[in-house]
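User: I'm preparing a small set of examples for a lab meeting where we compare how different chains pack in three dimensions. I only have the primary sequence for this one, and I'd like the structure in token form so I can line it up with the others. Please keep the answer compact; I'll paste it straight into my notes.
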Amino acid sequence: MTYFQIEIRYSGPNIIFGSIFVITWEQCKLDEITNRVLRKNKNLESELPLTISAQEGLVDQEKFFNKRIASKDLRNYLLVENGEFAYNKSYSSGYPWGVIKRLYKYPRGVVSSLYIVFSPILDKIDSSFLVVFFESELWHSQISKRAAEGARNHGLLNIQASDFFDIDLTLSSLSEQRQIGQFFKDLDNLITLHQCKLEN
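Assistant: Understood. Below is the structure token output for the 200-residue chain.
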């Protein structure tokens, strides 16, 4: 991991020397703050096939599509636990580099083995901060550099898991990550509340 500092200098009209604020950020790879999940649903711990909705996150596949797309035997699917993330490499209109969402609606579920599943290392990264990062477009340029040109197959980006976990993040302290994550969570809740009022 590498470190760098940003110095912000401010001089007010009544301040002779001004003030210096030093902010330390940390640059790291995704594989330094997350663990890849390769857990198969061998014992049928879950029979809930999930899909990723860009708006709703990881949701019940049958309710979303009004039909079952997953195969009858779910043993070879990846088992996703609440709080873990899944990356759907399928590109669609408005989401050229796929979608990454955290499971929060259900205790667990299963996704296709074509997805990349990972869990945050909670003493290194705040989970809600990671949600904010993947809701932004900050990671898109990193995926575009790593995805093979002209090698999209059946709507899937041709990106290896090793390349995906090689993407860079720049992090503030864990306490500041928590504040940022909580801020956007509160903001999302407020927007949802106003949307409900508007619909009513």
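A couple of notes for your slides: Residues 41 and 75 are 5 Å apart (CA to CA). The chain has one domain: 2-199.

User: Perfect, thanks.
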